[in-house]
Write a structure and sequence with these properties.
It is built from 17 helices and 12 strands. Helix 1 runs parallel beside helix 2, helix 7 runs parallel beside helix 10 and helix 11 runs parallel beside helix 12. 36% of the residues lie in helices and 11% in strands. An 8-stranded parallel beta barrel has the order 3-4-5-8-9-10-11-12, surrounded by 6 helices. It is an alpha/beta fold. It is globular and about 75 Å long.
């Protein structure tokens, strides 16, 4: 089978991407203290650039400077002011040493009800559209999540049935489980309580919303100056912007709530204000869930309308996700692959044909088939890029059989939720990339410069 179509270039705005393979945005928890990019952050991305990805999309980087931005044990990366700038520019400069690899930053105004109060200010709840807490329905877990719950909390073994028992429960039967679940978790797995039952967010004021709209434009402009080739608005799977879009979590009665147009106002204002600041040509896109996959949540038809409005406001590409934390099994961490492609035609049509990025692939055969349908333009790898950072290079070299495949065990997710250093069941290098520079510094323009410099230093006498 030919995979040549995966290696054709594509343009997004004024950026030419050398192939159709992107690394999906993923928060791995490698950020240093107080939200600064760390050496491990840089090595993590560099290894994927070395592996042949044409586009790296960073983890969700928060531009909200306030305590109520929402926090979590994984300590998200920040871009709030010039204290953080040089750490980002160091990383972008290194990524650009890798044979035309491009890097986009995914910027976020906050985590909303999927965030928690910072450990430094537990008195300050996360800000959201309405004071409605998150609650995971265990019927929405899948085999990967079941395995991780049992690994992290062995005490649940005798209490938690096979996940299919939950999956098949009626609302009435599940209500009984829901009533006793908090007590069971507190007794047997207290570290998991916050992953199932969120804390009630504080309703944001209009002034706070407008302030974030304006600040987003400022930090987006800074991102381009720091060497990022594009900016992506973080609007999917239940985070702050998604929670404004969803009628499940947005029950406001002002200009930011009620109708779909009002619920989309925060997102659309960010796009409009940012586009005015960055100019007409820069790559500037949005990631959105194709459907919330929850009763009463935002639907695919509504998302298609939002996509159309985003295009008119100034977005020139879209990145697809789905669901939210309340539906982690069927949403952004399904057991299989290619689940997200079903939303791609709706995004494509509603955007008037703008470039579409679609994630959730493991096998190159599946990826090339999705690309050849014309419904998507770029395929992206999330958990698969964790399992094998050299996936693109192996495919291009005809070494598909050497790909280390993601087994969908969800260990990478669960480690983040339980304050562990992210690991992978099939890739022992994950979280340790900084210790193996020989795997990611080779074949770069930087290596050639360093070798030339070192050659001129040979034979010098000691002083």
């Amino acid at each position: 089978m030919s995979f040549d179509a995966l290696f054709e270039p594509i343009e997004i705005g004024n950026v030419t991407i050398k192939n159709r393979i992107a690394m999906s945005p993923m928060n791995m928890g490698f950020t240093g203290p107080n939200g600064y990019h760390s050496d491990q952050n840089t090595a993590w991305y560099a290894m994927r650039a070395r592996g042949g990805f044409g586009l790296i999309i960073t983890e969700c980087v928060v531009m909200n400077p306030y305590r109520w931005r929402g926090s979590e044990s994984l300590n998200p990366s920040l871009l709030t002011d010039n204290r953080y700038y040089r750490y980002h520019s160091e990383m972008t400069a290194l990524i650009h040493e890798y044979k035309q690899c491009k890097v986009f930053i995914q910027l976020s105004p906050g985590w909303g009800r999927q965030g928690h109060p910072s450990v430094e200010s537990p008195d300050c709840p996360a800000g959201g559209p309405s004071p409605i807490p998150l609650e995971v329905d265990l019927r929405n877990l899948n085999k990967g999540w079941e395995k991780q719950f049992r690994r992290i909390a062995p005490g649940l073994k005798e209490i938690m049935p096979d996940i299919e028992v939950f999956n098949n429960m009626s609302d009435e039967d599940y209500e009984g489980v829901r009533t006793v679940l908090p007590g069971i978790l507190h007794q047997n797995a207290p570290e998991l309580v916050h992953t199932v039952f969120g804390e009630t967010p504080r309703e944001m004021t209009v002034a706070e919303i407008v302030d974030l709209e304006d600040r987003f434009a400022v930090q987006a402009k800074a991102a381009y100056a720091l060497g990022y080739d594009g900016v992506e608005v973080h609007g999917p799977h239940g985070y702050l912007l998604h929670s404004f879009l969803s009628p499940r979590s947005n029950q406001r009665h002002d200009q930011y709530g009620g109708t779909l147009e009002n619920r989309a106002r925060f997102l659309l204002n960010i796009i409009e204000k940012t586009r005015k600041v960055i100019g007409p040509d820069n790559a500037f896109g949005v990631r959105l869930s194709g459907d919330e996959l929850m009763t009463g949540g935002i639907t695919h038809d509504e998302i298609k309308q939002v996509v159309n409005w985003c295009k008119d406001a100034g977005a020139n590409y879209f990145n697809i996700s789905q669901g939210s934390y309340e539906n982690p099994g069927a949403a952004f961490a399904p057991d299989g692959e290619n689940d997200f492609t079903r939303w791609a035609p709706g995004f494509k049509d509603s955007s008037g044909g703008l470039p579409i990025i679609t994630p959730n692939f493991v096998n190159p055969e599946t990826a090339i088939a999705a690309l050849k349908t014309g419904s998507t333009d770029i395929i992206s790898l999330g958990r698969q890029s964790i399992a094998d950072p050299f996936w693109p290079a192996k495919v291009k070299a005809g070494r598909e059989k050497d790909i280390v495949k993601c087994i969908r065990c969800q260990r990478c997710y669960m480690d983040l939720m339980t304050s562990n250093w992210a690991r992978c069941s099939v890739n022992p290098l994950v979280g340790k990339e900084k210790f193996y520079p020989e795997l990611w510094l080779s074949d770069t323009a930087l290596e050639k410069k360093v070798n030339k410099f070192m050659e001129k230093a040979k034979g010098l006498p000691q002083v």
